[in-house]
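Entry 14. Structure prediction run on the chain below.
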Amino acid sequence: MVEVRTDLRDSFIEKLIELARSDERIVVLDADVSTSTKSHAFAQAFPERFVELGIAEQSMVGTAAGLATMGLMPFVCCYAVFASSRAFDQVRISVAQTRLNVKIVGTHGGVSVGMDGPTHHSIEDICLMRTLPYVTVISPADDVETKAATEYITRLAGPCYMRLLRVKVPRIFDSGYEFKPGRGLVLSPGSDVTIMATGVMLAHALKAQDKLQAEGYSVRLINIHTIKPIDEDIIIESAKTTGGIVTCEDHSIYGGLGSAVAEVLVRHCPVKLRTVGVRDCFAESAPPHDLFEKYCLTADAIAHAAKELIQEKV
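Output returned:
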């Protein structure tokens, strides 16, 4: 079977345009990167509902907050690193504290941005956004999940951060996929170890599962698309079932999926935990594949972490 790879930015904008035809509240704001975020397609479809703010992310978030107070549903589109860090104060005060219906879509997440280098590698965005009360944090894994998540957040009353990517990713889910907010999805049962992955790392986790199963290991694989609110039940159930969890994310090991899982485990069911992610460093400028290899964001790295964990349980 030929692998289908798609751009999550295209999937998001295509779905948003479709939804905007029947929901006049939807407006889009961008910060001089509409070609990169793909929001220029929305501007072509609805020029009167698109606002170009220039390189002024803080002003863009403040403007979005104002539009939300008037009953509109603004989608803020820009690079994840700028949406989460440069505009953090505005998101915190103008959006989160007021619980306004602003949707922040951060594209170019993680080191998969590649050659743009450490200034543009967003490896702290999930950490920053999940610290904010009332903000839902979503990291879809493929185009099908991205479209389903986009439809969901238009029904969600309140602020939301959705992380998208620059690189094309494999299609994992079929047309019957149902997005269940705040619920992890068990892709396969297993008894030796649980692998939990989010975003681009789900495709790598699937390959790691194949490697491990070929060696005789029983692997429970779970997709975590909603980082906040995290699915505590599935984490506790997995801990009890397999006695160990490996988390996988294109993000710092501090504050993201691994930390969210650890917070649940330490309160409810302490077990062995391994975190696959960017260690305590800024990544270099290089092609995405090379960065994933250097920073151990690969199927081999996931499989190695899983086998280490299993051996420690013995």
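The two ends are 38 Å apart (CA to CA).
Filed with the rest of this week's runs.
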